[in-house]
Amino acid sequence: MPLPTRKAIIIGGGPVGCLCAIALSNMSWEVEIYEARPDMRLPSSKGTAQQRSINLAISSRGILALQAIQPDATDRCLRAAVPMRGRMIHDTTGKLNSQPYDRNGQSIKSIDRAILNEDLLELAAKNSNIKLFFNHKVTSIDFDGRIMQVEDTATKTQKAVAFHFCVGADGSYSIVRRQLMRVTRMDYEQTYIPHEYLELRMPAGPPLSPGGDPTFLLDPNHLHIWPRHSFMLIALPNQDKTFTCTLFAPSAEFEQLSSPEVIIRWFKTHFPDALGYIGEDALLYDFKNNPRSSLISIKAKPYHYKDRAVILGDAAHSMVPFFGQGLNCGLEDVRVLACLLLSNNVNGSSVPPEGELDEDMLKALNAYTDTRHEDLITISDLAMDNYTEMRHSVTTPAYLFRKALDNS
Ligand code: FAD
């Protein structure tokens, strides 16, 4: 492999940033990842990272991207995944209705977000072309001068970092996107939906026999949904036999849940079976201690600037989580970008002449924005539509009839 000579900086050490670092390093780039938070692999960081959700669903879109960039990463990242072959709808009387995702038994997989991110960080750290900088918060970027300012939050010092290529994988509130807006004519749209979410833990069940392993309280191979029209509860399985439940509800609904008595009464009315499994004390503990978070949808275009910068993942297209595709699309962004760089003969082993535009890189990034935008907007819109489907439509007689027909 030729020696790396061309330098890419990745802002954000989330799953998308790490996968992109690995992809560029495979193409002989010298890569540096700048991550504002501490290293999540360190014992001192465990439990302190502000996680958006504990687990998430990964589908063939994300798995294909992992396989394409780092084939041996897939087994590693999916070792703790639990397959979900369909939805399980819970009505208010506790009656269950299983709705398979696919006639041939294909599944999406419930995966621990922290394990996925740590695995990708570990793979990046092992790569001699990639350097990782934690506690490094990017504060501004001069794309034309190809230089960015970074604050080392541990030492409270600033430093300037030069680059050839800047990748913004710094999530929904991306500084790279904001800096790009100053130099490109970026169309931008941001929507907060009226709903918020809160995570709740459903414990593992007792072993079947004394001294045996704990058990799942619900069928582990389903994504469980309690659709209640204007709000809903969902549950995804974890390998330790627990479920992570997420309550999605309008802010006004959350506001009414103002005392332990009201919360328990509300759960008894709307989610009696889930309350039985979670337990009243655990439910009240999570309500008191877990954050209530908002949900944002972001659309932007273009994703790139000249031959030297691009935004990927949530930095480019934050979407509401109801289609389970936000991260899957982010991982796919990396695969698509890597393919376009390869097909335009761009790699890290040759440095373009100083002061000149790299025409091949420009072509690749233009093609990236042009070909990627429509797909991302479509998936983002489907994600918005799927909220109505998950909390309401799945309970309607017309939907149930159509689904039964599909699976017959
Ligand atoms: P992030 O994971 O947000 O990583 C960005 C990183 O950049 C962070 O580590 C941050 O610290 C760092 N950073 C930010 N600013 C700076 C800076 N100035 N300098 C340096 N570093 C910086 N997606 C799915 O595919 N399936 C699901 O089932 C699913 N479920 C979800 C459930 C919920 C409740 C939510 C909210 C989202 C869900 N998603 C799901 C979406 C998924 O979480 C995101 O799409 C994914 O995390 C985006 O990854 P990312 O690497 O682009 O960004």
How would you portray this structure in words?
With 408 residues, this protein is α/β, with parallel strands linked by helices. It has a domain of 245 residues: FAD/NAD(P)-binding domain. 37% of the residues lie in helices and 27% in strands. Helix 2 crosses helix 3, helix 2 runs parallel beside helix 11 and helix 7 crosses helix 8. The longest helix has 33 residues. The radius of gyration is 23 Å and the shape is elongated. The termini are far apart. Bound molecules: flavin-adenine dinucleotide (FAD). Flavin-adenine dinucleotide binds next to helix 1, strand 3, strand 9 and helix 11.
Beta strands, count: 19
Largest beta sheet, briefly?
A: 7 strands, mixed
Helix content: 25-40%
Structural class by helix and strand composition: alpha/beta
By CATH, the topology of the domain at 7-46 and 53-81 and 112-190 and 296-392 is: FAD/NAD(P)-binding domain
- Strand composition percent: 25-35%
CATH class of the domain at 7-46 and 53-81 and 112-190 and 296-392: Alpha Beta
* Measured distance between first and last alpha carbons: 53 Å
Radius of gyration: 23 Å
Task: Tell me the CATH superfamily of the domain at 7-46 and 53-81 and 112-190 and 296-392.
Answer: FAD/NAD(P)-binding domain
Question: What's the rounded overall pLDDT mean?
Answer: 92
**Quaternary state of the chains:** single chain
Q: Name the overall outline.
A: elongated
How many helices?
13
Bound small molecules, by name, code or SMILES, are: flavin-adenine dinucleotide
Q: Architecture of the domain at 7-46 and 53-81 and 112-190 and 296-392 in CATH? A: 3-Layer(bba) Sandwich
- Strand arrangement, largest sheet? 6-5-14-15-16-13-17
Poorly predicted runs are none
